[in-house]
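Contributing new records

If you add data, match the layout below exactly. Sequence lines come first and carry their own label; structure lines follow with theirs. Keep one chain per record. Anything else will be rejected by the validation script.
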Amino acid sequence: MTDRGIVVVGAGIVGASLAYHLAGQGRPVTVIDAGLPGSGATRASFAWIGRPVSSDLPSAPLRYLALDDYRRLEAEVPGLAIRWTGSLSWDGFDETPGPSTDDAAALEPSLVTPPALAFHRPEDGAFDPVAAIDLLVAAARDRGARLLTGTPVTALIHQAGTVTGVQTITETIPAETVVLAAGTGAVALCSGIGVALPVEPAPAILVRLRATPGLVRAIVATPSLEARQLDDGTILAPTAYSGETDQAALQATARLVRDRFAASFAGAGDTEIVSVEIGWRPMPVDGEPIIGRPAGTQGLYVAVMHSAITLAAAVGRLAAAEILTGSPAAELAGCRPDRFR
């Protein structure tokens, strides 16, 4: 690439959304990933999207946009299919619960012991994040973006406070702006130019089960079990990481999740384990997204966050507009890297 365009490092859900929103706007866009799009933390995501009823978090203005931006994206990108099933939670799972319902048995008729009172958010949805990434990357390429897979970025090219490109294992790629959407991988790249990015890996486990289709209608969440079901019967069930270090321990955790699911839903006695994996989510130390240009640098933009699935559609739109126009988005004001200085 001869023109100095925009390089997006990372093709998870945030990088794919950024690439889609940046492409076709008059500047060359290159997306680089060490593996295939969606092969990192996104693959092990539960992919539940919702928005808070109320929030005093610095990122609240961004979080309030989450569902509207996904509905926009669903209309723009053919094939992007979001399951707007709503969610049902109880037993103290949700710190900011939605409207209550005493009709959980009607909403989830297969529950063995439906709660007397639950919180119901009918707006909530979920989707296949890897399929969504593939669609977003394909749409970005249709708009002229270039995709480089199997290409680890080893360093940022940096001189006199300005990032001018990236170094991969095979070439130097010049850039007007480098966008880091590489999750935990962004930490080392920033450190290489003297920028501290306070992000830690936060492991979580995702178990996939095979069950009779139609057992779970919505997204179900309690402190002991989270689950949602796909049309083919596949159950996605995230669970907390408890120090598993080998396949035997992961399989033992998967069996516990399967047993909880089988005990919770009538007709789930023959549920089988399909897979279990760990996703290493990027977790800023204060739990809030890090989005924007680090102080003291030019040519660098960072977009690293937990709740990446929930926020990706809105972040892609807002951050792309900032990068392209230089005009700050008010909704991102509470997410700036400078808060750690």
